[in-house]
Prior knowledge:
It is globular and about 70 Å long. A hairpin with a 5-residue loop joins strand 11 and strand 12. An eight-stranded mixed beta sheet has the order 3-4-2-1-5-7-8-6, sandwiched between helices. A five-stranded mixed beta sheet has the order 10-9-11-12-13, sandwiched between helices. It folds into two domains: 264 residues, Acetylglutamate kinase-like (Carbamate kinase), CATH 3.40.1160; 93 residues, Archaeosine Trna-guanine Transglycosylase, Chain: A, domain 4 (Roll), CATH 2.30.130. It is α/β, with parallel strands linked by helices and 369 residues long. The chain binds adenosine-5'-diphosphate (ADP) and ligand VHF. It is found in: Cytoplasm. Its EC number is 2.7.2.11. Pfam families: AA_kinase (PF00696), PUA (PF01472).
Amino acid sequence: MTCTIVVKIGTSSLTQSETGNLALSTLATLVETLTDLRRNGNRVVLVSSGAMGVGRDRLGLTERPRAIALKQAVAAVGQGRLIRVYDDLFTTLKQPIAQVLLTRGDLVQRSGYVNAYNTFQQLLKLGVIPIVNENDTVAVDELRFGDNDTLSALVASLVEADWLFMLTDVESLYSADPRSNPHAKPIHLVTNIQQLQEFQVEVGSSRSSWGTGGMITKIEAARIATSSGVRTVITDGKHPTNLKKILSGDAIGTQFEPQSRPVNSRRHWIANVLVPMGKLYLDPGAIKAIKEGGKSLLAAGIIRVEGEFNPNDSVQLCDNESQEFARGLVNYSSSEMQKIKGCHSEQIPEILGYYGAETVIHRDNLVIV
Ligand SMILES: Nc1ncnc2c1ncn2[C@@H]1O[C@H](COP(=O)(O)OP(=O)(O)O)[C@@H](O)[C@H]1O
Ligand SMILES: N[C@@H](CCC(=O)OP(=O)(O)O)C(=O)O
């Protein structure tokens, strides 16, 4: 059976740790593997990091740049080189590719999200392998994905993938960071992300010298992807041929099972793509009505409003321990919300001087997270 596969490869697998040069044999094997998968009728997307790593190698920088403008310049140098190498390798096998550079800002407008969806569909229909990276050179802080693990999960949801593979420098997720804990044990199967708490998995903050997110962002990416119904695997990037073995059923790496009832595309967009602009703290009655009753949020249930936002912006809904439990699109601005919080819906026209929506967040625009 053919399927849609997203493969993310991190800087740690693409470059040699000692020299920072491209790991050519890994890249060549990856390109051969993806081309084979494509020829067997699968739809394949590659999310490739490496712009910064290749850029710094080309410029002979020995330290990780800190200033944003320098990082953006280094990525601009590296991205062109990286895609050139991919194009040369894929062209040898007569496999067409496309470069897709995205920022979160491109997806936060629903129309932009749908447009990106259509472009990916068209590329896949043409038999092209899109090679995706964050558009590091122009991305501004508030509208960055920040790391390619998150980007790969959002791309996997966008293209309605069956599989997301995150290739990295460890064979799997371990019970603790294997760099600092030699007794850490590999974890093979995660049926539900909450299990990681039960297993008391320790996620260290260490990462490869040019990597960005470490294991934390991979787990968050697995949460996003599995909630959209995408089976997710964390595995070693040095052996890309393992992808075929995993697809044939071998238990290599850590596999995260997809949720049996995935959220739909619009709810996924509200929960994972939009950047929340504020927080609403709710009373226990409102929390119960939303969590257990699937109800809309009314002004009466709001205790406190934080942040500055406009109608249709996304906000986080929190309990009194500041724990987020849902996200939604608001019908009122933060200044309006400050005036109507705690009030009954019938009082809203009198307080604001005009008739607005009865609900603060309609249940169709609310997602439990
Ligand atoms: N529980 C854990 N299991 C496995 N690896 C972990 C864990 N906690 C932290 N890590 C670290 O995450 C690193 C991989 O992340 P990163 O360097 O960002 O890779 P990439 O460049 O492939 O995205 C590993 O080298 C490992 O040290
Ligand atoms: N967009 C950046 C990659 C950011 C990133 O997440 O890197 P990594 O942790 O190596 O996957 C680049 O191309 O250098």
